[in-house]
Design a protein that fits this description.
It is a multi-pass membrane protein. By secondary structure, the protein is mostly helical. The C terminus is likely disordered. A two-stranded antiparallel sheet has the order 1-2. A two-stranded antiparallel ribbon has the order 3-4. The relative contact order is 0.13.
């Protein structure tokens, strides 16, 4: 019996730009998802970073995020995309190469290493070939890579040299991010083994959280005054950045089935359920233990909820998303508010925005909970390994939890080693840390710019009356120095 004709919009060769494999709905959703994820970084985290830090670091913090976003794009299309999603070079790494030519970009998207085989060599699941062009896939994956580096920046704000950051970004993207992306998503050994990471709980959040904490160790702490007092310069703008982050997560998790399908819808709903639950739990804990609800605390709870659901967004049911939200609002809260004040390592390593707790802890928690709650039918809609399931559903579910732990240990170990080597190499070329004069003055010394002109109409207030240097310290022209 002949198949019914396709609607005109989907018929091949209605124009040269509409090949027979193109699904306009999928392509539209994937481009929208990529845009939403991009907005999370720029302007989302640019705004959040620029407003959640002390006034004198607003420009520097926002600029670090902005620079990383731009730098990753160029590195990604020049060599890093194929290292993450191209042909296999090693079990954990793809072959480097450009993604710039039209012959590559206008062909149907395909991830060549993602075919999955049974032990006897028979194909279990074919290569992933979404119904849109490679250009869409390259851009969608690019914004994920970019936000990973931007998240990492949150650990080293207010003291890392900008020149060192300019070197660090392409090196970490190349030697850390691409490893996790290929291993878990692009067809590498963890993908083949069946480790679950729906949308980046490990590839993005655990990776950037561990790498950020490691980089913070090598860069050293902020100045003593900044560590003692570091109030947000604009709480309302912090909320604006957080809002862009939250709603942008619809693309973050909703775009990872590579299609506008039922699993995509499930992922978006679960994302919002978990984030809302986590925010409420974090706020309740602040009220119970500190007697005051904190807006910044609520933002932290929102972020941990979004991070925790990410590895299982399209794999778990709604009730599991609520449980994950309760745990993501309480476990990272405990590690940050209680353990963070008891353990020496958290006192020694100055993680400016607590990225270790909000991303590494929450990402690890989400990955393990995904291994516990992944529902078999939902898993079959997305995962290449047939009969995948979480621990609560019996069968091979117990093994899945072990797989999740092993996958996490690989990401943790690789990022500690790779990030340390990168910091050491960068440190040989340029200082990792700003000078003491720059640490004292902030944005005006580092960039010659300030976020707020609070003295007259665009005028700036000098720290010294004669507006000259004093004892080798640059005179401040920033009102933020008068504290």
């Amino acid at each position: 019996m002949a198949s019914p004709p396709l609607p005109v919009a989907y018929q091949a060769w209605t124009s040269l730009a509409v090949p027979d494999w193109l699904n306009k709905g999928d392509n539209t959703w994937q481009m929208v998802s990529a845009t939403l994820v991009g907005i999370q970084s720029m302007p989302g985290l640019v705004i959040l970073y620029g407003s959640i830090v002390k006034k004198k670091w607003a420009v520097n913090s926002a600029f670090m995020a902005l620079y990383a976003f731009a730098a990753v794009i160029i590195c990604w299309v020049t060599w890093a995309y194929k290292m993450s999603f191209g042909e296999q070079l090693l079990p954990f790494w793809g072959k480097a190469g450009p993604a710039l030519g039209q012959k590559f970009l206008i062909n149907q998207a395909g991830l060549p290493a993602t075919a999955h085989y049974y032990h006897d060599g028979r194909v279990e699941t074919g290569e992933a070939t979404p119904f849109y062009p490679m250009a869409t896939m390259v851009w969608f994956q690019c914004v994920f890579a970019a936000i990973s580096v931007v998240i990492l920046a949150g650990s080293v704000l207010a003291r890392m040299s900008f020149k060192a950051w300019m070197m660090f970004v392409p090196l970490w993207l190349t030697f850390s991010y691409t490893i996790g992306a290929f291993s878990l998503w692009g067809g590498g050994f963890l993908f083949q083994w069946g480790v679950m990471d729906y949308s980046g709980g490990y590839v993005i959040h655990l990776s950037s959280g561990i790498a950020g904490f490691t980089a913070a160790y090598w860069v050293g702490p902020r100045s003593k005054k900044d560590r003692e007092r570091f109030p947000p310069n604009n709480v309302l703008l912090t909320l604006a950045g957080a809002g862009l982050l939250w709603l942008g997560w619809a693309g973050f998790n909703g775009g990872d089935p590579y299609s506008a399908n039922t699993d995509s819808s499930m992922a978006v709903l679960n994302t919002n359920i978990c984030a809302a639950t986590s925010l409420l739990v974090w706020t309740w804990l602040d009220v119970i233990y500190f007697k005051k609800p904190s807006v910044i605390g609520a933002v932290q709870g929102m972020i941990t909820g979004l991070v925790c659901i990410t590895p299982g967004a399209g794999l778990v049911q709604g009730w599991a998303a609520i449980i994950m939200g309760v745990l993501s609002g309480s476990v990272p809260w405990y590690t940050m508010m209680v353990l963070g004040k008891k353990f020496t390592i958290f006192q020694k390593v100055d993680d400016t925005l607590a990225v270790f707790h909000t991303h590494a802890v929450a990402g690890l928690l989400g990955g393990i909970l995904t291994g516990l709650f992944a529902e078999p039918q939902l898993s079959s809609l997305f995962l290449p390994v047939t009969n995948s399931r979480g621990g609560v559903y019996g069968g091979s579910g117990g093994i899945q939890i072990l797989k999740q732990i092993v996958g996490a240990l690989f990401i943790i170990g690789w990022n500690i080693v790779a990030t340390s080597i990168i910091c050491i190499v960068v440190g040989f070329c340029v200082p990792l840390r700003m000078t003491e004069e720059e640490l004292l003055i902030g944005d005006d010394a580092v960039h010659g710019e300030e976020a707020y002109a609070l003295w007259g109409d665009g005028e700036k207030l000098s720290l010294y009356k004669d507006d000259t240097t004093r004892q080798g310290v640059l005179a401040s022209s920033g009102a933020t120095q008068v504290v």
